[in-house]
Amino acid sequence: MKTDRNPETGADHPVSLCSLRAGSQWFGIDTRQVREVLRAAAAQPVPLAPDYFAGVVPYRGEVLTTVSLRALLGLERSDKAGCVLVLDDEDNHEQFGLLVDGVGGVATIPGDSLESNPPTLDARNAALFDGAYRMQSGLMVRLNPQRLRPSRLAESGLFGPESRENAGHPQ
Fold it and tell me: Phi/psi zone of residue 14: left (φ > 0), alpha (ψ -120 to 50 degrees), beta?
């Protein structure tokens, strides 16, 4: 089990997660990593881009590349406009968006309740998930923006057309 410890005191501290939905599944991202939520954002497609690219959306006078959580999870595309979470990648200063079906509230969870991914989790999901929290309503899977970065997804080779053929999924 991983814990979120305060380096100064060594004590566990609560984690604040923004809850988000793709299909019928709920996920969470640390609120400190979410810059903004854009409601009802329709991404403009990018020709010849990988399936997991939702497209681009205008954002504060710039163009923001967005990644589709539905596509990463192997779910069918939705015709409805979703929400875009604007995420910062502090390591590489790469700002990008995550297109989701909806955003819920903020959940505060004890930091020591994060459980590691099970060893039986397939490679694609293990590349996306950072563990899970047990909640009264079920599991909330934690997503890590570092793992969702468009450049990292491309480098992994797990989300292109070849990976779908190898996984037995139709294109």
Answer: beta
